[in-house]
Amino acid sequence: MNTNTLVLLVLVVASAITVVYTKHTARVLFADAQRLEQENEALQTEWGLLRLEQNTWGEQSRIERIARLRLGMELPERKSIVYLKP
């Protein structure tokens, strides 16, 4: 085998190894990207549920119910309400 053939053979093998390594790296990165997308979707779903829960906790009817039950508060009768004009 002459030197040119040997150099070409080494270059072809090196190129093949580089292609295999690059494909493997791309597959690993793609799998990581897919996993992160799924994690993001799960977190977005959880965030939506938490916002819904937060809105529920702040509803006016819930606040009124707690004021009545825990604090013993009642709405005043109409005749006892005094309106002030500015």
UniProtKB/TrEMBL annotation:
Keyword Cell inner membrane in record: yes
Mode of membrane association: Single-pass type II membrane protein
A Pfam family that the UniProt record links to this protein: FtsL
A cellular-component GO term for this protein: cell division site
Cell compartments where the protein resides: Cell inner membrane; Cell membrane
Superkingdom, taxonomy of origin: Bacteria
KW Phosphoprotein (keyword) present: no
Coiled coil regions, renumbered to chain: 26-53
One annotated GO biological process: FtsZ-dependent cytokinesis
Listed InterPro entries: Cell_div_FtsL
Family listed: Belongs to the FtsL family.
Subunit structure: Part of a complex composed of FtsB, FtsL and FtsQ.
Protein's job: Essential cell division protein. May link together the upstream cell division proteins, which are predominantly cytoplasmic, with the downstream cell division proteins, which are predominantly periplasmic.
Protein name, as recorded: Cell division protein FtsL
Gene that this polypeptide is encoded by: ftsL
